[in-house]
Amino acid sequence: MNRHPWLLVAASVLVTLGLVHTMGCGATRSARSLAAEKVYVAPGELDKYYGFLSGGQSGSVFVIGVPSGRLIREIPIFEPRAAYGYAVHENDPRRQLLLATGALWGDTHHPMLSETKGIPDGKYLFINDLANARVARVRLDYFEADRIVKIPNLQGAHGIAVVSPDTHLLVVNGEFEQPTDGLVTNPAPYTSVVAFLDPESMEVKFQVRVDGNLDIADTSKDGRYSFSTVYNLEQGRDMGSMIQYDRDAVAAIDIPAAEKAVAAGKGHVRNGVPILDPAENPGVLTLIPVPKNPHGVNVTPDGRYVIAAGKLSPTVTIIDAHTLKIVAEPEVGLGPLHTTFDDRGNAFTSLFLDSQVVKWNIDKAVKGASDYIVDRINVHYNIGHLQAVGGDTMHPYGDYLLALNKLSKDQYLPVGPDMPENQELIDISGEKMKMLASFPTPPEPHDATFVPAALLKTITKQTYAPADDAVKAGQEKVVRTGPHAVTVDMTLIRSAYTPDSFQVKEGDQVTLRVTNVETIRDMIHGFALPDHNLNIALPPGYTKTITFDAGKPGVYWYYCTNFCSALHLEMRGRMLVQPKDSTVVLTDWHAAENVKGQTVPGVPSTGANK
Ligand SMILES: [Cu+2]
Description:
Layout: H1 5-23, H2 31-39, E1 49-54, E2 60-66, E3 71-76, H3 93-101, E4 112-116, E5 119-129, E6 134-139, E7 144-150, E8 155-162, E9 170-176, E10 178-179, E11 190-197, E12 204-210, E13 213-219, E14 225-231, H4 239-242, E15 247-254, H5 255-263, E16 268-270, E17 273-276, E18 285-291, E19 297-299, E20 305-309, E21 316-320, E22 326-328, E23 336-341, E24 346-351, E25 356-361, H6 362-367, E26 373-378, E27 383-388, E28 400-405, E29 421-427, E30 434-441, E31 448-452, H7 453-459, E32 477-482, E33 485-493, E34 496-498, E35 501-505, E36 509-516, E37 525-529, E38 534-538, E39 543-549, E40 554-559, E41 572-578
Parallel strand pairs: 12-17, 33-36, 35-41
Antiparallel strand pairs: 1-2, 1-31, 2-3, 4-5, 5-6, 6-7, 8-9, 9-11, 10-11, 11-12, 13-14, 14-15, 15-18, 16-17, 19-20, 20-21, 21-22, 23-24, 24-25, 25-26, 27-28, 28-29, 29-30, 32-33, 33-34, 36-39, 37-38, 40-41
The structure holds copper (II) ion (CU).
């Protein structure tokens, strides 16, 4: 067969071009560079998703960018944090709230986003404090905790979930069982509760008694059921006796039935909360027997199935989310803990003992097909939670999966006996999973959830709207409001405090109302008064009021703790504390000292010290 020579030339050119394309400058493009490209976000470019990782004993939530893994910020919640001026000083209402509800530390585990129609709406992020039986709500327009509540009748607030699809309620599991009557003299039986909270008022509406240790929670996609894994149906008080039974349970609570029973007055009120006893309210609680000391429970995005992970059994149990019947119990590997999903009918289960993520096909597993396992990938090491982007919603994105590993061992430079926690990002867009990148975090994320950055971009505020008590520029003043009380109204703007000095007396109580009057995003100023244990950070538009004792006579500098301009170092001022019996009035200070009355107008600045 004759071929035209030009065709041969053209063919060889095409082959050569193809080689150059795949080989680059003579070198095969490695899997490494392909992975690097997938997670590379150039300076100035934005990540596609925000990930919210619980900070564990940091008492906070870490916000990371996906796919870059960059730490975007930390949201302090259950612990004071000087850098954010959060709950640091005694008068901060958030500090008082933390102390009133338990402690100035927390153990955060499960970040949950509020949903509308089964997908995150960007309104709230809920996070539990396992240790102190608390739940906090973070407003995502400000990335700030606005509610923290203590849940009565419950120890160990572990699994939490929002009731899909519209965040009708918030579910909180009590892990550590207690005597039924709350008395230490009663040896048995011990019991716990699932608490149901109103997500707006954060009030506990009712609780349902469950005998056993309630672990992880999820809800059906139609708002009908909450699902909680329950271990230790043995009612053991030590580890050996907690692992006797081959099966424990998934507790399915019929939410409308429970609400009806509560409305009919069937609850036993303890500490102001009605508790439903399932024995008195048939149909409210169904215990579905699953192997063995189960841990994770996850509802498939289409709402058809509930997947319970066996933990001490190499299986997951697939439960029909409507009939509550077990439909399959496939083996997946050793130490299955949690499951997440893509948008193509696949499940991904974390295997703690195998240090793997296993991908399996849900339909094939339900039908009993032998080839339901699709792929396995090694992770480093001993994975706990895992979450695919959108895998906990009705709309998984099917692109990235985050493995939250408990041990990093040899993955980073040694930094002492304690190593950082290791998060690994896996590409799940193809048939085979591909490891893309790892990044360390402070201890220790337990769980994660994600939202598209595009959604938050439309929601987050640039500045705080001035509150009713905001101090306006030009209206700063120093006012003596009583024999031992002075109020200082102060504003901050690059790069000065107004007033930049004020005079009080030993024995005075000083009320400082301070507003950052900047109107552009990210222009934070701080107010630190170190010898008075005060350090507050003020984002633009923010007003804080703090009250403190003037302390010993002396001159005390306050200074800006957030670098704000070329004159940041010059951004400071003085508080003069005069001796109790001093009658001297220094004319170059903003003072109210020469007035004996109870309430007087402010004494304006002489301007001499400006
Ligand atoms: Cu400043």
